[in-house]
TrEMBL record:
<dbReference type="Pfam" id="PF01494">
    <property type="entry name" value="FAD_binding_3"/>
</dbReference>
<dbReference type="GO" id="GO:0071949">
    <property type="term" value="F:FAD binding"/>
</dbReference>
<protein>
    <recommendedName>
        <fullName>Flavin-dependent monooxygenase</fullName>
        <ecNumber>1.14.13.-</ecNumber>
    </recommendedName>
</protein>
<keyword id="KW-0521">NADP</keyword>
<dbReference type="InterPro" id="IPR043683">
    <property type="entry name" value="TetX_monooxygenase"/>
</dbReference>
<dbReference type="InterPro" id="IPR036188">
    <property type="entry name" value="FAD/NAD-bd_sf"/>
</dbReference>
<feature type="binding site">
    <location>
        <position position="46"/>
    </location>
    <ligand>
        <name>NADPH</name>
    </ligand>
</feature>
<keyword id="KW-0560">Oxidoreductase</keyword>
<keyword id="KW-0274">FAD</keyword>
<feature type="binding site">
    <location>
        <position position="53"/>
    </location>
    <ligand>
        <name>FAD</name>
    </ligand>
</feature>
<keyword id="KW-0547">Nucleotide-binding</keyword>
<feature type="binding site">
    <location>
        <position position="304"/>
    </location>
    <ligand>
        <name>FAD</name>
    </ligand>
</feature>
<keyword id="KW-0285">Flavoprotein</keyword>
<feature type="domain" description="FAD-binding">
    <location>
        <begin position="9"/>
        <end position="195"/>
    </location>
</feature>
<comment type="function">
    <text>An FAD-requiring monooxygenase active on some tetracycline antibiotic derivatives, which leads to their inactivation. Hydroxylates carbon 11a of tetracycline and some analogs.</text>
</comment>
<keyword id="KW-0503">Monooxygenase</keyword>
<feature type="domain" description="FAD-binding">
    <location>
        <begin position="298"/>
        <end position="345"/>
    </location>
</feature>
Amino acid sequence: MHSPTPREARIAVIGAGPGGLTCARVLRRHGIPVTVYDRDPDAHSRDQGGSLDLHEEDGQRALREAGLLAEFFALARPEGQEARLLDATGRLLDHHLPDEGDTARPEIDRGQLRDLLLRSLDAGTVHWGRALRSVSGPADGPRTLEFADGTTAGADLVIGADGAFSRVRAAVSPATPRYTGIGFLEAWFDDVETAHPELSELVGRGSAHVADGERGLFAQRGSGGRLRVYLVRRVPVDWMAASGLRPDDTEGIRARLLDEYGAWSPELLRLITDNDGPYVDRPIFALPVPHTWEHTPGVTLLGDAAHLMPPLGVGVNLAMLDACELALALARATTLDEAVRDYERTMLARSTNLARRLEGATGHLLSTPDPAEHPQPAHTRR
Ligand SMILES: Cc1cc2nc3c(=O)[nH]c(=O)nc-3n(C[C@H](O)[C@H](O)[C@H](O)COP(=O)(O)OP(=O)(O)OC[C@H]3O[C@@H](n4cnc5c(N)ncnc54)[C@H](O)[C@@H]3O)c2cc1C
């Protein structure tokens, strides 16, 4: 099969998340043309969610290759590295305060990160409102992208950066994500500093993890006084419908949570019940471990599409590292195929190794480790 050079090829990235946008940015820095397709109608049509810590060794490394590290640090919150571990009575078990000048894992709002990456791309690079349905075409030739709006596009290389329920994945692997048995229920506070100073004091400037062995919560500060709380519960995937609750029945869900978390201290219960807006159900899925595939010319995957793992603080960093390494491999290689093989060799070995270590680890979010044995908070342990 003839494999074109990266500079003459039509490269399509599916997904304008942190992985897809980082890949596009690093490719453009090396003069390689790229088109990104995303199903969202536009960049701000959907709340981008909470805060992400970007690590020196992966997420920050990718931003350095993207030429965006200084802009990242102008937005990042190093103070967000503060982490507290509490028991269900509200007793502080462990408290990590970052040293002055510590920038190993600063936090940034997910929306700020997406905007930073989008601003760095030429207008028109991202085609919004294009939900991919499938990838077709011969294994030895260009691929056809089929979108939900009935349009199609051709590509010599399709990069699946389309997240947990990737539509590109089927072109390389039959694997599908499985429910881990753990559900996150997301709640948020718009301005905790003014409206709930006692909760601001309780969580501090970073995050707080509380658990009693059966259930947990993870509270995370964002910019502008926002606070996001993930209630971590061992529940069936359809727990809400099975309990006769609807997603917009905020009072019904609240009553159920008061029942489940009733033995927790009144102060902690306020984190669960005094939230603004509705609760958002986020069942946690993961790909089978290991997830690998035979090299397939013209298609590859990165980030959650390649290796969806439980959310234990590595997902975005791995997605951005994959993205940067794939783009650099394309900048170095003489053919698309050589670049993708190089990238997959490293990425699949790394993600398999990490996925094995994190398999089943979501349960850690339901218990508080002994701080003497585990000086770092549970959610950041590797
Ligand atoms: C509740 C929760 C909390 C988390 N917290 C953290 C954390 O604190 N730290 C951390 O590192 N990780 C965290 N993660 C994991 C992290 O969110 C992911 O690992 C990371 O976002 C993966 O990036 P990505 O670019 O691969 O995919 P995504 O961020 O999922 O981006 C995928 C993009 O593809 C688009 N898309 C999807 N399907 C299609 C389609 N068919 N056609 C076109 N476009 C499509 C989407 O609109 C989206 O823009 C968390 C995950 C969850 C669920």
